[in-house]
# Entry
Amino acid sequence: MRIIKAIKIFGAVVMVNSLSACSMLGVEFFGEEGFFRDRQGDYLEADSIPRIVVPDKMDSYIIDDLLVIPTLNNNAGEPFVQAPRPRPLQRDPDRSVVVQSMNEKRWAVVDASVSQVWPRVRQYWLQNGVELALENPANGLLETTWFIDDGNNDTQQKVRVLVEPGFQDESAEVSLIQIAVPQNAQVNERVTWPEESMDPDYASDVLNEISVYLANEMRNYQASTVSFLAGNMPSTGKATMLTEGGINMLHLRSEFDRAWAAVGRAIERAGVEIIEENIEEGMFSVAYGETDVAEESGLMQRMLSTGRRRETIPFGVFLVEVDTGVEVVALRMIDVIDQAYSSDLSEEALELQEQQDIERINSLIQTIRDLI
# Structure
């Protein structure tokens, strides 16, 4: 060990002497003119390069400022000691693209804004050689012309795609409707669209293909900050947190089926146990939070007993349809509370228990809001 240590010391001395020798030969390693000079303030002298000019006949939605310099909030105009970093490009990979379904309806949830997703959906059709009969970026709509799939000798298809805001901010939902007619039939680009696809299996396959395409494009629209084709599309999500009497509730601007599927997925993503679900009553029964429960019954036994166990608390998450959408509320399941225990508690203890229940309800609703 001493020999190794001596070698290390000898090597360090030789290196220092070598650097000194280089300085004597006119090679500076340190200081403002040295090779190892401090480059911390170099960013202050950086210049911007001209923007890329895209020909008029080509799409420019993918040409964005990928590493945007943050806006300075320094009125004095003094330089930073450390140069600020651009915002990160990554997102939660678990939320990239997810296909959900409920009662014969299917839609894709995408972790990107509508203004970023819509031009990618548009590009999907163009890359597959399908022309567009209608493009309405402001409303997230596009319609294809009539087209014939390879290998289909019977019908021709027409598809209407809707891209709208998801529940979360900067998220989107993609849905579509498909119609078909015989290949020899006379067609018109202006049609009356039904509420459901004529061939649900075909529509499901197309939605899956679009979802895979969007997932593959994830890096592009994660980094993208501006969409020139749909820059004015709304990015605010359809979920709003409300508070009444100190109790949280969630308002979803959506039809019931989509709200039900989204809330159920949020509960599962949170790792909360679903005891029972009843879509007809609009209720998820879940086990959330823990409380101490004594092994014996009766007040004195509870107070004197040292043998206590932890039990999860049953809550009901209810989805209630209102004029403007669906409201999500949570309540402790009163019918399964130990009534004998409650009757033995003092008024102060009951108030404490009620406050704890409110805190758990607010926490549960906030968890759903964060993961929906």
